[in-house]
Amino acid sequence: MGQKHLVLLTCFWVLSCALLLHASSDGLQRINLNKKRLNKNAWTAAKVARQENHLRRFGGSQQSLGASSDDIVPLDNYLDTMYFGEIGIGTPAQNFSVIFDTGSSNLWVPSSKCYFSIACYLHHRYKSAKSRTYKKNGETCTITYGSGQIAGFFSEDNVLVGDLVVKNQKFIETTRETSPTFIIGKFDGILGLGYPEISVGGAPPIWQSMKEQKLIAKDVFSFWLNRDPDASAGGELVFGGVDPKHYKGSHTYVPVTRKGYWQFDMGDLLIGGHSTGYCAGGCAAIVDSGTSLLAGPTTIVAQVNHAIGAEGIISTECKEVVREYGEMIIQLLIAETSPQKVCTQIGLCVFDGTHSVSNPIESVVEKQKRGSDLFCTACEMAVVWIQNQLRENKTKELILNYANQYIVKLEQAGQTICISGFMAFDIPPPRGPLWILGDVFMGAYHTVFDFGENRIGFAKSA
Prior knowledge:
The chain contains 11 helices and 23 strands. The protein has helices at residues 5-9, 40-51, 118-121, 180-184, 206-212, 298-307, 316-334, 339-345, 366-391, 396-411, 439-444, and strands at residues 21-23, 29-33, 85-89, 94-101, 107-110, 135-145, 148-161, 164-177, 189-192, 220-225, 235-239, 247-255, 263-267, 270-271, 274-275, 283-287, 294-296, 350-351, 356-357, 422-424, 434-437, 445-450, 455-461.
């Protein structure tokens, strides 16, 4: 699920009801993905239930589980979903609830040999001694995510996905899970659907094993994520094809430009028909079912949230930059100074030849470094805004007034509020700038992951 998944996951937990697996007469292998509407009272009650270890799943009653209302700000229902499905590992099958994650490539579940992590005791654990098809591997491994780390060792066993039995699949038994995210999470583990290039330990992703074992008719899998909060079915994952009931028209395909994540060239992002500036030369994007939101560069996300009237993150630094340096930024841009060098020339960033970074001299003291980072980012955002206004022939007075209006609207009395489906997440070059198209995007567009042709297809969800 990449380094961003667990960071964003702390803002968005939505928990599923009982999960049903079934096959159909059309030869497609479907996995129903269920969800439950966010409810603050249910969250609090479920947290207590988790602490008392009374939760019963897969055949028992289901409850929402997550952080208390003090830890997270409830969002509109179209944003508060996360999708889960059930798989089986071993013979007879031991059931696990997993996130089907196109942003990672490994399958992992807690091990019965996990003794020192609370998360393992609060979730289903794989017991190799109870499986007739278990094969020992023993190779150790570690995976680091944005807010924690898992460690364990590889094993091999049969994995049941829908009605498909993938034989001798290499997966990870975790023996250490070092993040509160794993403790409060409804999911037992992760089933990665990314490319093998980002798989730890060379373990093949499940779709590659399906292809090699000739279990599916076509080399594709597809997601439909239901955004109807009142529907019982949360969505559907289909291996080997697509379900025509869940999309309109035909799919538009784009080639995968970099294997690992499902990455493609996105091009520019327009607001009201105008370029936001930052991606004028093109940006890359990945489609990630393991991320709840649409995440992208701060400079663009701030503009999007402003345009849709959403509240955003604290913007005191932006206000300071515009008040102190606004006129200077305008003068430099009029003098045709490269936008990438403006913040360097006014002393808020250091230019290293490829991109702006915070002042390394201040990095000796972490607190100072964080402050420098914030002002550098704020300056870069202000430059993009002002540059776009100049392109539209706005006067200096109008530009500064508009920028200050934008900043005040975002500040919200010093409180950090997340209510938009767009979240700022900056990935530096050479990997970035990069957009992460998570469940908010995939809910609107039925998505086909074609690993046979190395392309991604989008069609409007039905």
